[in-house]
Amino acid sequence: MERYDRQMRVKNIGKAGQEKLLAKTILIVGVGAIGSYAAEICARMGFGKLILIDRDYVELSNLQRQSLFTEQDALDKQAKSYAASKALQLINSDITIEYIVDDANVTSLTPYVGTIDYILDCTDNFMTRDFLNQFCFSHQIPWIFTSCAGNYANLMPIIPPDSACLHCLLGDIPQTNAASCDIIGVDGALIPIVAGMQVSTYSNDYQP
Q1: How far does Cα 23 stand from its chain's mean position?
Q2: Residue 139: HSE in the Cβ half-sphere, 13 Å Cα cutoff
Q3: 3-class DSSP assignment, residue 111
Q4: Sign of CA dihedral 144, 150, 195, 182
Q5: Mapping DSSP to helix (H, G, I), strand (E, B) and coil, where does residue 27 land?
Q6: Are 47 and 38 in contact (CB under 8 A)?
Q7: Quick check: helix, strand or coil at residue 150?
Q8: What is the distance in angstroms between the CA of the first residue and the CA of the last residue of the chain?
Q9: pLDDT, tens only, 44-59
């Protein structure tokens, strides 16, 4: 627990709060810009188990905005979830890190139902978000909708069945994303701020 000393000194965390974090399992969907930063924050804070899912591979153009990855990862065309898991294990070998090279879908996520405490949406497409919205409400799993492009971001905690869902916010969920960073770019300095806010949304669980 020594590695978490400065965190446990925070009044509303303490040792009991840290022990709660160590018992949590977080599923991170998308290990790109927001996801790589969120995963690193979770690992350093000591969330006990991280499950990373992403179908993509590291490219040189990712390095401007995605932490954890190196030029060598891009040259080797490493799967993002695998490359991120390797980097995170070097940061914190005391936690469990699992990676999945796949889309987030019923087949890939259903085996984890009942073991996941929270899902972090770090994706860049509305098709996956629509699936997560339905999946999480079906299985009563809290999740956070997050997006970031240009110089603005969105964040919405969704707590089934007590909160509004993504359809409540957006109405008909679009099938294309005209404001993705592939089209309008993204300010790299904004991404870790959004990721930090996303992870800190679960701060109530620090309470002993």
Answers
A1: 17
A2: 20
A3: helix
A4: positive
A5: strand
A6: no
A7: strand
A8: 16
A9: 999 999 999 999 999 9
